[in-house]
């Protein structure tokens, strides 16, 4: 024990014993220390784990590398004479009459106030062989899983096969972490879709497609009935649907059970499902005994989220110091990143409110699902769900229960609509639920008109940096999901005062993307670890990691998944293919300018027939092959590469294609050879990574059959040469390209495009299209013309050299993958046996091909094998066309 002893120090000093050493206990001790500083209270925290209180929310990071220190800060209070910490001891008995607590070592602690913060345990059902299973709950659990997975992999001579029972938050974290360690992971979940307690079916199935696409097997609608053991070792698990899954390790992560043993012995009133029943003061049924965190049952419900636990701790701190704070509601809003996927929900996410209206934007091909729940007049926000892109969450959650000033769809980032300018958060809007920080508190801290939340420290001159603002108010210091909104409030207040706004990429990098790009180039940095050690802080996030991956790919041109860069990439880049709505992938070979020989067409046809792929000619003059499993991609690409095809980079933020008309070669109106120029451009800029995708168009005359003015770079032939247009975009905010230069010869055209592209790549923000980039540049098109045509900045030679380096070092990514057995290991099947059909994939024959089945067709097919007259084929093994017939 450090800090205080158990004897009273004098009259008026009360002993507070907190039973439990988790985040809730840490928060209560920290709050009491900050408010009271030992004047009236002496605090002792007793935890049965050997670790100081740590962040359970971040256990997945510990699972990923086995070394991350999760200790909660601040930790300085443990050195105070007013606060004591006992670790590695369990409180075994409590005497309510004598007001003592006795630990497993015989230590006797006197208390005037007892706070039960004993948390919860990870339940394991009573099944045959369950004693051989593992759980995912504590640091020791995680460390044991890391060690056992490594040992099993070494002993078997192959990746360990792990089954995780539970498709909720903990189960997904465990499966994702184990997969990152190299294990073949699978999830068994009793619900029909993942996270069924927090997400609706659309969101859950969208999440499931993404998780399955990462190589994690899914077995939904079933639960384990037995853990199979042979000679003392796990060999498999049996499910309620009769299926057996072979595995080496079984991990249960099926929820939490409140640790209410002490409460039962004391005779305290319990909740209907266990846990200590508490009132709005967080007091139990016995005077002087309180309960907080996962063991506390409020209105009949225990919750395992951080925000309610912290709120309870603050209420008890206030009550112990004579206040009257109340805990009135459970904020069950959740935002987290599971296996690299953004997931968030808040409010009435499942639309249980009578007459609730659901506004949904879904893009299964991109793995996006966003939903707002509104009142029936579409005005008042009741809740929301986000999968794949949770960017709107931080701005919308504080508006819960208020009327929105614009159409609901405008608040969904995936819709592409311009976000509303209004909706300034009211002072009472809760920005940080974990620490109960309002918008008004944050604004006051920025302007210096007020202090922080309880335990925070105010600054008379104001907190004008994000780091200082987080320290001052505590906002964003727990789960971090509110940091974007905190930053937005900071920028708005600084703008009002006329101060210069920070252009920091994220909280880990004070540099903008442009500054980061230049710093990496000048310093010659080649890895994420080097960059964050030299230029940033922390471990990075979903904002900075893909940016750094793109910057490294642009500057060095090396294989995108080597050197630790695989974990930085988006889902599609990791698979080097576009994930589709059913968890399969599409294959897009490069076909420059749409020109292809009959022999190559025959290869594509043969591949499509062999693997049962749906084929479609795209708007970019290429052929897309849909329906490939992850494990099939290498063999598909082996045949295509052998025939001379390259990756079309349809999955990357890079050049997608150069569209061309037939030009002067055949067309009687053509004045230049647009096909030859399009091929030259595509072969020059293929694989060039950029802030966003790039599309080109080349038209052989002013009739503009290639629609070049709708492209990032548009080239239109004239009698004298080529006109160059830039900054055209399609999508939700279409923009026409603008004329940059006229009547250019071939070499000048290439030089100008080199300069334009590299200037855009170096200076644009993350995910910023060329049209928006030019709009944001001071001077717009004229500034671009000064740089590209007039070379006013003296950068022309440098920009051209950068492109020349890219051209020199270009290597087709799939050809490089096929040449390296280690790289091929990334493309393992996500089912237990390579040729076992995946039951989650279903196809319907239509127009002599097959497509993904709809939900209705799945249901009909499950009943009778047909769907609306079409044949329903379940499983990943697709019949040939002859078999369909």
Write the topology of this structure.
Layout: E1 14-19, H1 23-36, E2 41-47, H2 59-65, E3 83-87, E4 91-95, E5 100-103, E6 108-110, E7 113-116, E8 120-121, E9 134-135, H3 139-156, E10 161-165, H4 169-180, E11 184-189, H5 201-213, E12 217-220, E13 224-230, E14 233-239, E15 244-246, E16 249-252, E17 257-258, H6 261-266, E18 276-278, E19 289-291, E20 296-298, H7 306-320, E21 334-338, E22 341-347, E23 357-363, E24 368-374, E25 381-387, H8 393-396, E26 430-432, E27 437-438, H9 439-447, H10 466-473, H11 483-497, H12 513-523, H13 528-535, H14 544-556, H15 571-575, E28 578-579, E29 585-587, H16 598-611, E30 614-617, E31 623-628, H17 633-642, E32 655-660, H18 674-685, E33 694-699, E34 713-718, E35 721-726, E36 738-744, H19 746-763, H20 770-776, H21 780-788, H22 796-809, H23 813-818, H24 821-824, E37 842-846, E38 849-852, H25 855-864, E39 866-867, E40 870-874, H26 881-884
Parallel strand pairs: 1-2, 1-7, 2-3, 7-19, 9-16, 10-11, 10-16, 11-12, 18-20, 32-33, 33-34
Antiparallel strand pairs: 4-5, 5-6, 8-17, 13-14, 14-15, 21-22, 22-25, 23-24, 24-25, 26-27, 28-29, 29-31, 30-31, 34-35, 35-36, 37-38, 37-40, 39-40
Helix pairs in contact: 1-7, 2-3, 2-4, 9-11, 12-14, 19-22
């Amino acid at each position: 024990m450090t800090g205080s002893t158990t004897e009273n120090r004098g009259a008026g000093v009360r002993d507070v014993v907190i039973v439990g050493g988790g985040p809730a206990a840490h928060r209560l001790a920290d709050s009491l220390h900050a408010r009271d500083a030992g004047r009236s209270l002496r605090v002792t925290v007793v935890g049965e784990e050997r670790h100081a209180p740590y962040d359970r929310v971040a256990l997945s990071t510990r699972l990923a590398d086995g070394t991350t220190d999760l200790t909660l800060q601040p930790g300085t209070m443990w050195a105070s004479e007013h606060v004591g910490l006992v670790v590695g001891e369990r409180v075994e008995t409590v005497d309510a009459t004598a007001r003592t607590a006795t630990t497993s070592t015989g230590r006797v602690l006197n208390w005037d106030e007892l706070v039960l913060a004993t948390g919860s345990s990870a339940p394991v059902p009573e099944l045959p062989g369950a004693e051989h299973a593992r759980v995912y709950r504590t640091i020791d659990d995680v460390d044991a899983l890391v060690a056992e997975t490594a040992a099993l992999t070494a002993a078997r001579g192959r990746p360990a096969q792990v089954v995780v029972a539970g498709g909720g938050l903990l189960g997904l974290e465990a499966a994702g972490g184990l997969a990152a360690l190299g294990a073949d992971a699978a999830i068994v979940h009793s619900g029909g879709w993942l996270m069924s307690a927090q997400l609706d079916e659309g969101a859950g199935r969208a999440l499931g497609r993404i998780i399955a696409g990462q190589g994690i097997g899914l077995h939904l609608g079933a639960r384990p009935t037995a853990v199979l053991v042979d000679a003392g070792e796990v060999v498999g698990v049996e499910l309620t649907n009769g299926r057996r899954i072979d595995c080496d390790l079984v991990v249960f992560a099926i929820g939490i059970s409140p640790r209410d043993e002490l409460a039962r012995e004391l005779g305290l009133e319990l909740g209907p499902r266990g846990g200590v029943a508490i009132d709005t003061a967080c007091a139990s049924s016995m005077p002087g005994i309180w309960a907080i965190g996962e063991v506390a049952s409020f209105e009949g419900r225990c919750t395992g989220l951080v925000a309610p636990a912290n709120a309870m701790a603050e209420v008890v701190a206030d009550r112990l110091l004579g206040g009257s704070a109340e805990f009135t509601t459970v904020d069950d809003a959740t935002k987290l990143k599971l296996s690299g996927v953004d997931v968030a929900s808040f409010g009435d996410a499942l639309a249980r409110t009578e007459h609730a209206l659901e506004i949904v934007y879904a893009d299964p091909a991109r793995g996006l699902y966003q939903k707002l729940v509104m009142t029936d007049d579409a005005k008042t926000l009741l809740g929301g769900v986000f999968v794949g892109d949770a960017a709107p969450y931080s701005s919308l959650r504080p508006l819960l229960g208020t009327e929105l000033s614009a159409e609901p769809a405008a608040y969904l980032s995936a819709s592409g609509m311009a976000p509303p300018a209004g909706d300034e958060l009211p002072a009472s809007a809760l920005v940080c639920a974990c620490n109960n920080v309002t918008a008004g508190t944050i604004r006051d801290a920025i302007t210096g008109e007020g202090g922080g939340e309880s335990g925070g420290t105010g600054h008379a001159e104001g907190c004008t940096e994000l780091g200082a603002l987080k320290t001052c108010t505590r906002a964003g210091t727990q789960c971090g999901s509110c940091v974007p909104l905190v930053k937005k409030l900071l920028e708005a207040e600084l703008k009002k005062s006329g101060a210069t706004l920070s252009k920091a990429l994220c909280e880990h990098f004070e540099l903008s993307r442009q500054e980061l790009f230049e710093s990496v180039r000048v310093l010659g940095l080649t890895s994420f670890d080097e960059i964050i050690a030299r230029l940033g802080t922390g471990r990075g996030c979903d904002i900075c990691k893909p940016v750094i991956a793109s910057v490294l790919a642009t500057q060095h041109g090396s294989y995108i998944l080597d050197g630790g860069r695989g974990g930085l990439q988006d889902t599609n880049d990791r698979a080097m293919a576009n994930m589709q709505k059913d968890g399969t992938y599409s294959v897009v070979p490069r076909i420059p300018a749409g020109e292809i020989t009959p022999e190559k067409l025959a290869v594509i046809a043969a591949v499509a027939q062999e693997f049962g792929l749906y084929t479609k000619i795209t708007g970019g003059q290429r052929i897309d092959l849909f329906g490939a499993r992850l494990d099939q991609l290498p063999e598909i690409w082996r045949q295509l590469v052998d025939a001379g095809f390259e990756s079309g980079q349809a999955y990357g933020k890079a050049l997608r294609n150069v569209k061309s008309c037939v030009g002067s070669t055949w067309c009687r109106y053509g004045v230049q050879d647009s096909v030859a120029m399009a091929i030259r451009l595509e072969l020059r800029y293929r694989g060039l990574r950029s802030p966003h995708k790039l599309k080109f168009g080349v038209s052989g005359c002013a009739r503009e059959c290639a629609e070049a003015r709708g492209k990032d770079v548009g080239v239109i032939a004239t009698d004298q040469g080529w006109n160059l247009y830039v900054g055209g975009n399609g999508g939700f905010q279409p923009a026409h390209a603008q004329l940059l230069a006229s009547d250019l010869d071939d070499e000048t055209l290439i030089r100008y495009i080199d300069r334009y592209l590299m200037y855009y790549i170096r200076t644009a923000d993350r995910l910023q299209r060329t049209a928006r980039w030019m709009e944001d540049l001071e001077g717009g098109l004229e500034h671009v013309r000064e740089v590209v045509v007039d070379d006013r900045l003296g950068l022309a030679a440098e920009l051209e050299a950068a492109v020349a380096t890219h051209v020199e070092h270009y290597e087709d990514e799939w050809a490089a993958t096929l040449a390296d057995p280690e790289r091929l290991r990334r493309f393992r099947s996500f089912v237990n046996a390579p040729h076992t059909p995946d039951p989650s994939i279903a196809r319907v024959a239509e127009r002599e091909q097959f497509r993904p089945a709809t939900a209705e067709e799945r249901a009909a097919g499950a009943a009778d094998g047909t769907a609306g007259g079409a044949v329903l084929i379940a499983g990943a093994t697709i019949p040939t066309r002859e078999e369909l017939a």
